[in-house]
Write a structure and sequence with these properties.
The protein is built from ten helices and ten strands. The protein is α/β, with parallel strands linked by helices.
Length: about 280
């Protein structure tokens, strides 16, 4: 008899085989293993060759016929989730070995828990990503401040799937700010907790296609978010410059840093080197 896992891990992906392999490698190393992995391939190149390298992971691959972008892919993953809890994570991020275990413990008395992160810059060497820079991203999540600039990082967050029964799925109209919108909708009805440990390794490399770098295309979605939640005018600013402003420095919080700074050695790298 198939029993449902406690956690459903949702990974939207599009043409990032090397990065996806590193994420799967980090999932193999988790101290908590009662989870399923739902990989939603957004009409990109096949991920089967990577997934087959990790037969011990209970992976389900959903191949979308057309590219509908990341919000739709996440919604598709949630629709197929069987766990009591959902954990979101981007295909180019990964988590330290104790991440899920600590998140499960932290979510016992709340509905959604999110951790701090290490923002990392990589270079590619010998078919693997090598970290060359890191920055702690840890901020207090005061309700007023979170309506000015969101410091909620969805990668690695863990929440009760039942939340979607009350608020619906992720809003596809909020392409760049779907996570901020989700956070605001959740906090209106549920209990949210920040876990002060930087256990998510978040890619923000110069060469990456991170959506939060696309300044020119963000304005329309920011205005849409502002209207939806009555936030007033919100400026789009350079991410790193914004973090140095006095209001953001005031929001900085202490966090436990547990990552050793070493990148992931995935089986995909070993496979490529052996060819």
């Amino acid at each position: 008899m198939n029993t449902c896992p406690i956690v459903s891990i949702i990974i939207p992906t599009y043409n990032r085989l090397l990065e996806l392999a590193e994420l799967l490698e980090s999932l193999c190393q988790q101290t908590f293993q009662d989870f399923e992995v739902i990989i939603v391939n957004d009409a990109g190149q096949s991920v089967d060759e990577v997934v087959q390298l990790y037969p011990e992971l209970p992976c389900k691959v959903i191949d979308l016929p057309t590219n509908e972008l990341h919000v739709h892919a996440r919604n598709t993953g949630v629709e197929h989730a069987r766990g009591e809890f959902v954990m979101l994570i981007d295909d180019d991020d990964w988590i330290v070995p104790t991440h899920i275990q600590r998140m499960i413990h932290a979510v016992e008395k709340v509905d959604l828990v999110h951790s701090d992160v290490e923002i990392v810059d990589y270079i590619i060497e010998e078919n693997r990503r090598v970290p060359v820079g890191r920055r702690l991203f840890a901020y207090h999540d005061n309700a007023v401040d979170m309506k000015v600039f969101s410091t909620f990082v969805p990668s690695g967050c863990l929440y009760r799937k039942a939340i979607h029964e009350k608020i619906g799925y992720f809003d596809k109209e909020m392409k760049h700010y779907w996570d901020w919108d989700f956070y605001l909708r959740v906090t209106e009805m549920f209990h949210v907790k920040r876990l002060p440990v930087a256990s998510v390794i978040y890619n923000f490399s110069e060469s990456s296609e991170n959506e939060s770098k696309k300044m020119d295309s963000m304005r329309i979605h920011l205005d849409r978010l502002s209207r939806k939640h009555q936030l007033g005018f919100l400026p789009t600013k350079n991410f790193y410059l914004l973090l140095e402003e006095p209001d953001m420095k005031r929001r900085e919080a202490k966090s436990e840093r547990i990552w050793d700074g070493v990148g992931v050695h995935s089986r995909w790298k070993t496979k490529l080197v052996g060819q």
